[in-house]
Amino acid sequence: MRASTQYFKQKSTETLHDLKIQENLAGLYPGFHEARIKASSDTEDWDQLKERGRRIKAHTLDHLDYYLELLEKNVTNAGGVVVFADTAKDASEYVTKLAKSRGVKSVVKSKSMLSEEMSLNHHLEIEGIEPIETDLGEYIVQLAGETPYHIIAPAIHKSSEEVAALFSEKIGTEPTLGIEDLTEVARKQLREKFISADMGITGGNFMVADTGTLALVTNEGNGRMCTSMPRIHVAIVGMEKVIPSITDLGLFLRLLIRSATGQWISSYVTTVSGPKRSKDIDGPEEFHLVIVDNGRSRILADPVLRESLYCLRCGACLNACPVYRKVGGHSYGWVYPGPIGAVISPMLTGLSRGKDLPFASTLCGSCKEACPVKIDIPKMLLYLRNQLSEGTHYRSERTSGLLERAISMFCGRLLGNQNATAKAVKFLGKVLKIFPKRIFPFLQGWTRFRDLPEIPEQSFIERWRDSRHIDNVDGGGDGNSEK
Ligand code: SF4
């Protein structure tokens, strides 16, 4: 786990100076971001749909125990096995033990951020089981020995030339292949793996409580191959992914897909309800659903942060974020990057480890605007900043020093008193006129990149009072001065 203050500063600085990555990241805005804007504006009642999605998420989390039990009952009735894992370690242990007990040698995987959270590939490899990522982007980052860069586009930081060079090094193909040829190479390689794998592991975009259905969204069809070809299918999902009813699924598919890629509907929407039945001609013999907590209960218990569990993992907030589009995904140091990662990662890894992340935001509000379930990320970032400064959050330590807190307290008192503030600002204006701001070394962190505007002789309040005085002398002017 690499989330740490030092890592964020170092990696984001490196990324800002990496022109190739900057060029690749520049495609996010005209790509996914603008496609989302078009799809949402073409969707009738988009705002009402968002509101409805948000309400359903809030309701489900308020009754999470009920819906999880209902889901368990329905999956079990359909012949599946449901396991609740308290931690990522418990979940990994369950999957690796299952694989070993069934003599599994290789596993094909569909994209799952939770499996990254669990470091599942690493655990499988320790047991001598080969994990193969089958989403093209995940396949590329696995070949490169990296972690995903973006929630829905894991290899967004690599150009096609870099991927061609990577394939050439690892697979022995021509280093000049174009995108179509590269895709064909990956397809051939993966086809063999699908045929020989004993187990398919997927995430799940939604789990439907009233039918026990797992819904998966992909554009490459690899999710469907993972759920149908190997003899065992294991789905690992965070416990917040449950939705109450199959009648809600259409709404959530619209919200997710249009926000993620701007498509009207993705190429494949796969629904799975248990293993193959006696009359089915194919499908897995076993279906295991692993529902993972790993810190989510703690988030649920927090009245402000719990709405981060509404997240559909669409990635829209990443594409909208001016900070993510510059510092890139790896700077965040853990599984979840971007604005939602700046909230979730510190909560799951401990605020002390991710203490720079809540500050990696301009608080411009683009993330909230883009979010299909209207998660108020800026509010949560401010809340985390406050907890960091006070040292009140779980697994955090106070980050503000004695001097900083003394200054904050002094400023708080000063700003609470209008007359004192006016006098202080006047005094500061005079001081800055005599001494240029650069001679204050303690201000340089701020003034190096920003110009402090010149402080005018008269404050707004004084000008307002003067103008009213003149109006009164003139007999009230045109009567608009009070508006
Ligand atoms: S916070 Fe909202 S915009 Fe960001 S990934 Fe989650 S659902 Fe999408």
Question: What attributes characterize this protein structure?
Answer:
483 residues; alpha/beta; Fumarate Reductase Iron-sulfur Protein, Chain B, domain 2; Rossmann fold; 2 domains; 6-stranded parallel beta sheet; 4-stranded mixed beta sheet; 23 helices; 51% helix; disordered C terminus; binds iron/sulfur cluster
Note down, in words, how this protein is organized.
The protein is of the alpha/beta class. The chain has helices at residues 5-16, 19-25, 29-42, 46-62, 64-77, 88-101, 113-117, 120-126, 136-144, 160-171, 179-196, 222-228, 246-260, 296-300, 316-320, 324-327, 338-349, 366-370, 377-390, 402-415, 418-434, 444-447, 460-474; strands at residues 81-85, 106-109, 130-133, 199-202, 206-208, 213-218, 232-238, 242-243, 268-272, 286-292. A six-stranded parallel β-sheet has the order 1-10-7-4-2-3, with helices on both faces. Strand 5 and strand 6 (213-218) form a beta hairpin. The chain is globular. The N and C termini lie far apart (57 Å). Residues 475-483 have low confidence and may be disordered. Bound molecules: iron/sulfur cluster (SF4).
Mean pLDDT equals: 91
Strand percentage, roughly? 5-15%
Query: Which regions are unreliable across 5 or more consecutive residues at pLDDT < 50?
Result: 475-483
Going by CATH, the homologous superfamily of the largest domain would be NagB/RpiA/CoA transferase-like
What hetero molecules are in the model? iron/sulfur cluster
CATH topology assignment of the largest domain: Rossmann fold
Alpha-beta classification: alpha/beta
**How many strand units?**
10
Shape by Cα distribution: globular
Task: Provide the spatial order of strands within the biggest beta sheet.
Answer: 1-10-7-4-2-3
Compute the gyration radius: what is it? 27 Å
User: Helical residue percent?
Assistant: 40-55%
* Biggest pleated sheet: 6 strands, parallel
The first-to-last residue Cα distance is 57 Å
By CATH reckoning, the class of the largest domain would read Alpha Beta
| CATH architectural grouping of the largest domain | 3-Layer(aba) Sandwich
Total helices: the number is 23
Total number of domains: 2
